[in-house]
From TrEMBL:
This is Glutamine amidotransferase domain-containing protein. InterPro entries: Class_I_gatase-like. Keywords: Membrane, Transmembrane, Transmembrane helix. It comes from the Bacteria. The chain crosses the membrane at residues 12-32, 39-58, 669-688. The keyword Nuclease does not apply. SUPFAM superfamilies: Class I glutamine amidotransferase-like (SSF52317). It comes from Mesorhizobium calcicola. The keyword Zinc-finger does not apply.
Length: 692
C-alpha cells in the first residue's frame, strides 16, 4: 500500500485566493490586535479553507515490473566448429533453467547469426542483436545481458555498450585451440585473359609457427601449380587468367594435425577476365552493299581491332594490268596469311572468290589455322557458287558445306530452325517469336549440299542459310546469303543484323556466354543459382557438393528453349561445386573470405573491455583443452543497481524499482457529514464567542 495526500479544490485556484486572502488578512489583524473572538474566527477560517481545499488521502495499488534480461546466443558458422554447438546448447538450457527461478526477470532469448542474408552473415554481430532486444525497453528496466559465443564478435565496441547494465560473456571452445589459415594479401579484381596476373598471399599460424608449407593453386577448379610458402611471410603468386568472365582462383593448404578446422585452409579470389582487343581480318572480294555493314559493325565494337582489305577490280574487268599493280598499298598476303595469321582471332571472307591475289598454298595455311583453334567466317554471295569459288581450293577441308552451283533468287523470310531456337547465337533474336518473323525479307540464297555442323537458320525453300561448325580446335561459320544489308538499311522495317552478326562473330571467337553446352552457377545472397545451356531436350538434375562436403540434387526447370534454371537456398558460406553431365562449375556463396572464418580461435579478448566497462565479466564455459570437457555455468544472482555484478563463480543481474499502477483508493478528509459537522462547529463557536 502506498498512501499519499492530494488537494482537489472545490473551486478554481484564482477564485479560492480571492475568497480566502481577504478573510485571512482580517483574521490576522484580529489576532495582532488581540480582539475578542479572534482565535475562534481564525479557527473557523482554517475550517473553511480546509473544506474548500478538499484534501484527499490516496491509496495506490502498484505491481512491480520485471527487469529485462537479454540472452544472446551466437549461432554463426564458427560456432559449428568442434564442440561449440554442444557447449552452446547446454549453456542455453542451464541458464534458462536458472533464470526461470527468478520471477523478477523477463528473459528474452535472441539467436544471432542465422539470417539467410549474405550481408548479415559476413560477420558475427551480437551487439546489433542486443540492441534489437532492448529497443522497446526503458533504460531503468534493463537488467543485463548474457552472451553465449566463441568470442569472435565483429561489432564489439571499444568501451561500454549503450545501456547501463551488466554484460556477461560465456565463451565456448577451449583455451588451447590452434589453427592455421591462408588469405590473399593482394588480389586484383580484373585481369587480362592469357596474361600473367601478380598476386600476394600469406599463411598465418596462431602459434607463431614458421617454416615451409605447400600451397595448392587452382584456377576454376583445376590445379595449376603447387607453391612453396613460408608461414607468416607475404608470398608472391603469378597466375594466368584462362578465359573471359568470372574466374575463381583458389589457394589451399593441408590440414595440420590437431588443427581446429580446415574451413579457413582455403582462400578464394574472384577475378573478372578481360580480353585484349580481338583482332579480326576482313577480306571483301569486291565492293558491294553488304561490305560496309560488316565494316561498320566491327568498327563500332570497341573490343575489336579490324584489318580490312577490299579487292576493287571485279573479275570480269580484264585490262592487262598486273595484279600486283592494282593498289596503292600492296596487299601483304605473306605477312597476313603466313607470318601473322596466328595473331588473328577471326578471318572473314566476304563475297570472296579465288583469284591470283592469294597463292593456292595460302588456303592450306588458312585450313591449318582453323584446325589449330582459329575462327573463319564465310559470308557467301553468288561467287561461292561459281567456278572461282573458294570451295574449289584447299580451303574446302575447313568448310562446312560445298556449293551446288545454284543461286536461288527468291523472296523469303529468314527463319530459325529447331536447333536455331535453342542455339545461343540465334536464340531469342528480336522478332523471331512471330510468324512470319518480325523482320524484312531477303532475296537470295546460295545452294549447298551435305551441310555439316548445325543449321540454325533456313532460307528459301527451307534451304540452309546459317551454318555453324567445329573443325578440329577451331570454328567455322557460313552465311549463305549476301542480303543481310537489307536489315541494316531498314528495308521493310529492317531486322536484328547487329545482334545476329555480333553473336556469330563472338561465337566463332569462343565467347563463353555463347557456348551451346555451358553450365554456370552464381551466388545471389545465400541462394545458389544454376544456369544450364544445352541443345538437348532435358539435361537432367544438377549435383551440388557444399563446402562441408554434403551432396545435394537440384532439379533444372526449362526457362526458354535451350536454357534450364535451378536454385537452392543454402546456409553455408563457401565454394560450391556444381555438376551436370560432363560439365562442372564452381560458385562462391556469401562473402568471399568472410571475417567469420578469418580467425576461428575462441577468445575472451574482444568482449573483455565492454563487459568490464558495465561491471560484467568474461569467462569460459570449459577451460580444459579436451573437446569433450563439461560446461561449467556460474550462479545467477539478482543485485541492486549500486551493488557488484560479478564474482568468481557468480554473475549478477540488476532488478528494477519500476512498477505499474493497478488501482487508486480515495478518502476525502472533509467530505460528507464529517466535513460539514467540523465546519458548522467552527462557525458556531465563532458566533457564540462573538455574542457574549
Amino acid at each position: 500500500m502506498n498512501w499519499s495526500i492530494s488537494l482537489e479544490p472545490l473551486i478554481s485556484w484564482p477564485l479560492l485566493a480571492l475568497v480566502l486572502v481577504p478573510l485571512a488578512l482580517l483574521a490576522l489583524v484580529g489576532l495582532w490586535f488581540r480582539q475578542r473572538g479572534a482565535v475562534f474566527r481564525f479557527v473557523a477560517l482554517l475550517a473553511l479553507a480546509a473544506a474548500l481545499f478538499n484534501p484527499v488521502f490516496l491509496n495506490e495499488e502498484r505491481e512491480p515490473l520485471k527487469s529485462v534480461v537479454a540472452l544472446i546466443v551466437d549461432r554463426s558458422q564458427s560456432q559449428d566448429i568442434g564442440d561449440r554447438t554442444r557447449q552452446t546448447d547446454e549453456a542455453l538450457a542451464g541458464l534458462q533453467q536458472r533464470l526461470g527461478r527468478f520471477k523478477q526477470f523477463d528473459v528474452r532469448v535472441v539467436e544471432a547469426g542465422k539470417s539467410q542474408a549474405a550481408e548479415e552473415r559476413t560477420e558475427t554481430r551480437l551487439f546489433g542483436a542486443l540492441e534489437g532486444a532492448f529497443r522497446d525497453v526503458p533504460p531503468s528496466r534493463i537488467g543485463g545481458a548474457i552472451m553465449i559465443t566463441d568470442g569472435e564478435v565483429h561489432d564489439a565496441p571499444a568501451g561500454s555498450p549503450d545501456f547501463n547494465a551488466p554484460l556477461h560473456a560465456l565463451i565456448t571452445g577451449n583455451d588451447h585451440e590452434k589453427d592455421r589459415r591462408i588469405r590473399f594479401e593482394n588480389a586484383p579484381r580484373f585481369g587480362l585473359v592469357g596474361k600473367p596476373l601478380d598476386m600476394t598471399y600469406r599463411v598465418i599460424s596462431t602459434e607463431n609457427q614458421t617454416g615451409p608449407v605447400d600451397v595448392r593453386v587452382s584456377v576454376n577448379g583445376e590445379q595449376v601449380a603447387v607453391e612453396h610458402a613460408t608461414v607468416g611471410q607475404a608470398m608472391p603468386l603469378q597466375v594466368t587468367i584462362p578465359g573471359a568472365g568470372r574466374n575463381i582462383v583458389e589457394l589451399a593448404i593441408d590440414r595440420e594435425p590437431g588443427e581446429l578446422t580446415d574451413t579457413n585452409n582455403r582462400a578464394i579470389a574472384l577475378i573478372d577476365g578481360i580480353r585484349e582487343n580481338l583482332r579480326v581480318l576482313l577480306v571483301s572480294g569486291e565492293p558491294h552493299a553488304g561490305e560496309r555493314t560488316w565494316r561498320n559493325l566491327l568498327k563500332s565494337d570497341a573490343s575489336v581491332d579490324l584489318v580490312h582489305f577490299t579487292i576493287l577490280r571485279p573479275p570480269e574487268k580484264q585490262d592487262g594490268t598486273p595484279i600486283n599493280e592494282l593498289s596503292l598499298i600492296a596487299f601483304p598476303t605473306r605477312e597476313l596469311f603466313v607470318e601473322k595469321i596466328k595473331d588473328f582471332d577471326l578471318i572473314i571472307f566476304d563475297r570472296y572468290q579465288h583469284r591470283d591475289v592469294l597463292p593456292i598454298l595460302y588456303y592450306d595455311y588458312i585450313s591449318e589455322y582453323v584446325e589449330k583453334g582459329g575462327a573463319l567466317l564465310i559470308a557467301a554471295g553468288p561467287e561461292y557458287a561459281g567456278e572461282s569459288s573458294i570451295a574449289r581450293t584447299p580451303l574446302m577441308s575447313a568448310l562446312p558445306a560445298m556449293p551446288t552451283g545454284e543461286v536461288v533468287d527468291k523472296a523469303f523470310y529468314p527463319r530459325l530452325t529447331d536447333l536455331g531456337q535453342r542455339h545461343p547465337v540465334t536464340r531469342g533474336l528480336d522478332g523471331s517469336a512471330t510468324e512470319p518473323p518480325h523482320w524484312s525479307r531477303w532475296f537470295r540464297t546460295i545452294g549447298v549440299q551435305n551441310p555439316e555442323g548445325e543449321v540454325v537458320m533456313k532460307g528459301a525453300d527451307n534451304r540452309p542459310l546459317l551454318l555453324l561448325d567445329r573443325k578440329g580446335e577451331g570454328r567455322v561459320g557460313m552465311l549463305l546469303s549476301d542480303q543481310g544489308w537489307l536489315w541494316a538499311r531498314g528495308f521493310e522495317g529492317g531486322g536484328p543484323h547487329v545482334q545476329l552478326y555480333r553473336r556469330i562473330a563472338h561465337w566463332l571467337m569462343k565467347e563463353p556466354e555463347l557456348e551451346e553446352e555451358r553450365l554456370t552457377a552464381d551466388g545471389r545472397g545465400m541462394v545458389l543459382e544454376i544456369r544450364r545451356q544445352t541443345m538437348a531436350d532435358d539435361p537432367g538434375p544438377a549435383q551440388i557438393i557444399t563446402p562441408s562436403g554434403k551432396t545435394l540434387t537440384v532439379k533444372l526447370e526449362k526457362s526458354e528453349p535451350g536454357v534450364f534454371l535451378g536454385s537452392v537456398e543454402t546456409s553455408e558460406i563457401g565454394l560450391y561445386q556444381v555438376a551436370n553431365g560432363d560439365l562442372t562449375a564452381l560458385a562462391h556463396v556469401g562473402p568471399v573470405n568472410a571475417p567469420e572464418f578469418a580467425d576461428v580461435i575462441s577468445t575472451e579478448n574482444r568482449l573483455r573491455a565492454p563487459a568490464e566497462a558495465t561491471g560484467g565479466s568474461v569467462r569460459r564455459l570449459a577451460s580444459s583443452s579436451a573437446l569433450g570437457s563439461a560446461v561449467t555455468l556460474p550462479s545467477v544472482v539478482p543485485v541492486r543497481s549500486a551493488g557488484d555484478a560479478s564474482g568468481s563463480d557468480w554473475i549478477g543481474l540488476r532488478t528494477t524499482d519500476d512498477s505499474v499502477l493497478k488501482a487508486v483508493s480515495r478518502v476525502p478528509l472533509f467530505g460528507g457529514f464529517l466535513g460539514l459537522g467540523l465546519l458548522l462547529l467552527a462557525m458556531g463557536s465563532m458566533w457564540y464567542r462573538e455574542g457574549r
